[in-house]
Fold this protein.
Amino acid sequence: MSTLTVAAAQIRCVAGDIQANTELHLEAIEAARHRGADLVVFPELSLTDYLSSPDMHELARPIGAKEIASIAAASQGLAISFGMIEQGADGRFYNSQLMFSECELLHAHRKINIPNYGRLQEGKYYSKGSALTVAALPQQWNAATLICADSWSPALPWIAALRGADLLIQPIGSARGVVDGGFDNPTGWDINLRHTAMTYSLPTIMVNHCGTRGGLDFWGGSRILDQTGRELACAGEEPSLLIAELEITDVVRGRHNLPTLRDSDPEFVHQQLGQFLSLTG
């Protein structure tokens, strides 16, 4: 089965209320299931909301927590990707995105690029992830997850594609005015997403928060892009459930017509990085 029906669940989270947000997840999952989705994706930190100064000891959960189990139990017949504050076995806290299917954990991605600029002060709260892996979906697609600022590190989308991803899951928590200097987040994300999808023939599911709370104005704009960067579905600023179909043969054809990934020469990049590190070290 090479066709994948994907859903982007742009929900209006309740700040710090895990129970209320769990219920929002379960409602959106059932709506996506009713519309034939094989995969439904929620925003970054969707279980707690994106908070400027989270109470880690109150909101963090291990992956085996009961709230996680209730969402996992809803994953029969489809895959679910959602965000949480993970309390690791090492005692550290991580900004994580989990994927469950058939009640089993398929994938867990810990955010790698932790922002510390403007009003984004995640470095005060979260430890960095140390791995970028790919999840094999039941429909024969391979999905990588990059959480928000991960995709602003130029190497990470490239590494995801090199590792075999043919689908990019991109949960974000983007609000207006959080980056200094007049930076326009909606425009910046539009450029970033289209560039990555087109350059690597990498269909993308981006899901943002919406609504205003805690001094943050989330602009929504969740979208599903095909392998050329063309929008298949796009949300406004209200809660939305987007649905689109992706076809793996389109990805294969795209990478044949624009072989950026094939020609990217990671060995050359590795050599250049080695030379750079030897000079700066």
